[in-house]
Amino acid sequence: MTTLEGAVVLVTGGQRGIGKAIVADLLDRGVAKVYATARDPKPSSDPRVVPLPLEITDQASIDALVAAVPDITVLVNNAGASSPDTYLDTPIEDVRAVFEANFFGPLNLTRALVPVIERNGGGHILNAHSALSWVALHGAYAATKAAFWLQTNAIRLELLNRGIGVTGLHMGYVDTDMVTAVTAPKSRPEDIAKQALDGIEAGAHEVLADDTARGAKAGLSQDLTATYPQLVN
Ligand SMILES: NC(=O)c1ccc[n+]([C@@H]2O[C@H](COP(=O)([O-])OP(=O)(O)OC[C@H]3O[C@@H](n4cnc5c(N)ncnc54)[C@H](OP(=O)(O)O)[C@@H]3O)[C@@H](O)[C@H]2O)c1
Fold first, then answer.
1. What whole-number distance in Å separates Cα of residue 195 and Cα of residue 188?
2. In this predicted model, what pLDDT tens digit does every residue of 126-136 receive, in sequence order?
3. Taking the complete model, does pTM exceed 0.70, yes or no?
4. Fold that domain 8-231 belongs to in CATH
5. Does the CB atom of residue 19 touch ligand 1 within 6 A?
6. CA angle 218, 166, 173 (to 5 degrees)
7. Is the CB of residue 178 below 6 angstroms from any atom belonging to ligand 1?
8. Contact assessment for residue 16 and residue 180, using Cβ atoms and an 8 Å cutoff
9. 116: Cβ below 6 Å to ligand 1?
């Protein structure tokens, strides 16, 4: 179990969308400090928030970030990118790029920060996946989130008995810049943030933050036509 009160937390992509809501909720829970990254970070009015630059696809940027956060005990891998909606009509470089942002980027950061969290006495990692870890939609984006889900599950096992818990976060659409074009119902970032942080404090392996995530996971055990009704002829 990880208590967030008094903790030092790093939130990637912590200045917009769900990451920003996570930072706000962390402050409400009494964290000592929260490092909030952005590619072009803006100052914060709260002295406990330390804005730092991060381009998650750039190893030099990751290295600089790691050097700037020697006191963290909790890592929130929230930053993520969307992708074009198709596989067949998208340049392969664009498919690779979203894997760099959503799979290799957080992996590189986690690899660099696990020793730091261990040195600081242990802590927690939260990885932002999606309901689309379990449903093919929005092109390669869903594949990156499926791969990230399995990365999380594997790292949780590698970290067993090393004092670092790992929580995977799954949710359907959330009202942020990422999905402005989507008209389907969306959760509020604040509601997702609260459940995510409750999950860290409870030591949950997985947080299914809305009905879409719960339905997507349940669909895995059913015939494919349950998830993809368009396959029924
Ligand atoms: N919104 C949804 O419907 C939804 C649903 C399920 C899962 N998610 C996941 O939740 C997480 C947060 O998404 P959001 O909805 O808050 O999206 P958002 O509003 O578009 O914000 C994306 C965040 O990721 C950061 N980011 C993107 N590419 C980056 C890169 N190359 N290097 C460093 N940072 C980068 C952005 O930082 P900058 O400030 O530098 O741009 C921003 O903070 C993502 O992992 C997303 O896949 C979102």
1. 11
2. 999 999 999 99
3. yes
4. Rossmann fold (3.40.50)
5. yes
6. 45
7. yes
8. no
9. no
